[in-house]
Amino acid sequence: MEINKRIKYEKELDDSFWRWIVSTPGGENVEQCIQCGMCSGSCPLSIYMDYTPRRLIAMIKAGFKDEVLKSFTIWLCSSCYTCTIQCPMNIKVTDLMYILKQKAIENKKYPKRFPISVLSKEFFNMVSKKGRNTEINLVFKLLLKTNPLKFFGMASLGLKLIKTGRMNFKSDAIKNIKQLKTILNSIEE
Ligand code: SF4
Ligand code: SF4
Question: How many domains does the structure of the chain reveal?
Answer without folding.
Answer: 2
